[in-house]
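Hey L., structure's done. Input below.
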Amino acid sequence: MVSRTRRAIALILFSSTLSLAAYAQKPTFNCANAVNEVEKLICSNPSLASRDRALSSAYKSASAKAKGALAASLKQTQRGWVKARNECWKAKEQTWITASWTVNTVKDCVDAQYRMRTSELQAVWRLVSPKTISYSCQENPANELVANYFETDPATIRLERGDRTVTMWAVGTASNQLYEGQNVSLSRLGADVKVNWLDTRSGKTEAFNCKER
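Output:
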């Protein structure tokens, strides 16, 4: 009788372990309600499901910091991101993630979108500590930069110039030290950086070399 009880308990514990393991492989949304190609792909792919869980964790941490209007803005941008992620169903040929980062499969597009959004939240909301470096550019105070480097995946920079702040992501190989964001790119050259910044009002790109201060 004792032996049967022990076997029954062991079976229950084993079943519970299997259930927890299966749950740990799932994304944070209900796969029974998955309706589009991208959602179904995430549900069927453990690595993408893991990306979804990592993003959910970062989003919860950011939400805990966001108050008032910032909280509303965070929710809005997250909803916008989900819509953009779901557009990855179109990525069955060369698709640009940044100016030089391209993918050509739906899976790679979804993976890139998750990595970028997770690292963006970690950088914008300081969920990881940055290394901050100030740069002087061509002896022009208007072009002084402050770069906050974050060890995320991919590595990110929050680049400040005057009243503008942009998020940039490391692209290519680790050796080329190239970061790209919306309308801006930065190349690290030892202690110096080279920046190309598009002025959307004039359509002209400003290029300047900067030295670490």
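The longest strand covers residues 204-212. The CA atoms of residues 71 and 126 lie 15 Å apart.

-- N.
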